[in-house]
Amino acid sequence: xxxxxxxxxxxxxxxxxAAALEAEKAGIEDIVLLERDEYLGGILQxxxxxxxxxxxxxxELTGPEYxxxxxxxxxxxxxxxxxxxxxxxxxxxxxxxxxxxxxxxIFLKAQAIILAMGCRERTREAIKIPGTRPAGILxxxxxxxxxxxxxxxxxxxxxxxGSGDIGLxxxxxxxxxxxxxxxxxxxxxxxxxxxxxxxxxxxxxxIPLKLQHTVDYIYGKQRLEAVDxxxxxxxxxxxxxxxxxxxxxxxxxxxxxxxxxxxxxxxGLKLAPGSxxxxxxxxxxxxxxxxxxxxxxxxxxxxxxxxxxxxxxxxRGAANFIRDSLKKREKEIIIEPGSGIxxxxxxxxxxxxxxxxxxxxxxxxxxxxxxIKIVIRDEAGSRIxxxxxxxxxxxxxxxxxxxxxxxxxxxxxxxxxxxxxxVEENGKQ
Amino acid sequence: xxxxxxxxxxxxxVNCPRGCRVRVQSQNGEITNITGYQCDLGIDYAKEEFKNPxxxxxxxxxxxxxxxxxxPVKTARPIPKSRIGEAMRExxxxxxxAPVKRGEVVVEDIAGTGIEVVxxxxxxxxxxxxxTGKKKETS
Lengths: 429, 139
Hints:
heterodimer, A: FAD/NAD(P)-binding domain, Immunoglobulin-like, 8 helices, globular, B: alpha+beta, 2 domains, five-stranded mixed beta sheet, three-stranded antiparallel beta sheet, 33% strand
C-alpha cells in the first residue's frame, strides 16, 4: 500500500530535525521523518564535546545538548517519526521504499522530499595504505561511537592519521580515557582542524602533530602491532630516509568525509565535483523539482549551526513548493567557482523572491591565504560585490551574503574568486 | 617559579584560524611583556591562559538501567586544566541511575573545584524488550 504524504525527510540528524521543525512552522502538516538509527540526533549524539551552537543558539553546547533542543521540539510537533527505518530507494517521481522491523517494507509517496542523509568517513581502503589487515584500524568516528555511546575503549596505544577536527577531538578523547596517543599525522603542511582543537586536544595533552607525514605501512597479524610513518615533500612524494616504525595497537583514520548520496544517485541526481553532493539552487532544491538536499549530504560542513540554517532554507523551499508559491526567474543564474575557490553552494539561483534581501553563499577556498577578497563578478566580468577577509583556510567554510539588489535582471552567471587585497574597489564591501 | 628569572611562554591564541603564537614574558609569575599578537583578543586570551588556563571537561559516566550504557556529561563551568586528570579518575567511579534528564547534576563538586558535572543527554529507562529483540545489559 502506498501512503501519501506532503513532505518526507530522509535522515533525522541535525539537518533532518531542523528541516522538520521549519517545515511545520511554515504550515506543512503532514511531515514524515525517516531515520535508520534507533535514536534521533544523528552524529551529534556521539559528539559529546562542547563547541556547538555558538552561531545558532548564541551559547556553547555539546553535541547531545544541541541535538536534544531540536529533538524535544520535534517530539512535541506533529511530525511523524519512524526510527530504525532504512530507506532503500527513492524514485525520481518521489516514491520511497523503506524497511523496518515492525512494518516490513513500506511504500511512501511524497509531494516534496528533503534529503538529509549526512555523510560518512573515508576508510583505509579509500586511501590505500599498504600492509597487513589486522584488527585495530578504524575510522575516528567509529572509535568515537565505541567510546562515547557503547562504552568500549578500542585501544591503548594509538596513532591518528588526519588532523581534521574529528581526528583532533578523538586524540583528546582517547588520552582522557587513558590511552597513549603517540601522534597525529597530517599529510598536508597545515592542520585542517580548528586552532582551538589543536591547542586543547593536542597541546594540552602533549600529543605531537606531525605535518607532512603519513602512514607508509601497517604491521600485525591478528591485532595491529606497528605502523611506519613517513614524511612527504611538497609534492607528496614519500621520503624513504624519514621512515620510522611506531608500535601501536590502534590506528584511527580521520581522512575526510564523503556525502552519502547513494539514494540521490539512484534518483538520477548528478553530483557536483567540488562538494560531492547534488547540484542545488538557492533553496537547496536539486535538479528534480520538489526534491531538496541540505546538511552534510549536500556539502560537508564544519559547523552544525550552518547545517541547521541550511536545513531551514530547504524546508521553507519545500513548503513553498508544496503550496506552489514559488516564482522562477526569467533566467537562472549559474554560480561558478573561480580562481582560489573549490566550490560554492548554491550552484545556481533559480527563483525570484522579493521578501529576501540577501542570498547566502557557502564556499571553500583551495588553500590558506591572508588579506584577500572574495570577489563576485557577473558574466561581463564586472565586479558586483567583494568581501574582505583577513584570513581564509580550506578547513573553515566561508560564507558571504549577496544582496539581492546587486543582481541585475539580465544576469545569468556569477563568478566567485579570491583576489589579493588592494585591487581597485568598485563594488560593495 | 619563585625566582627572579624572566620566563617566556608561548601561547597559541585560539580566537581565529591565524593562531598567533603569543609570547608572554613573566617574572615571579607576573606578566611583564606580551608580544606576537595581532589583535586585542590575543592579549586577553594570553593573559587568561597564562594565569589560569581552564577547560570545560566533556566525558561520559556509566548508567544503571538505562536505554544506553553511558550518559554524556560535562563540567557546568570550565575547571582548571590541572584538575582534568583527577576529575576523570573521579568520574570513572560514578554510576547514575536511569532515567537521566539533560542538565541533571551527576557530581556536585568535581575534583575539589566546587563545580558541578551535569548530564548533557536524557537517557530513558531500558525497555527490557525493545523491538530489535536486543536485551540491553544493565549490570
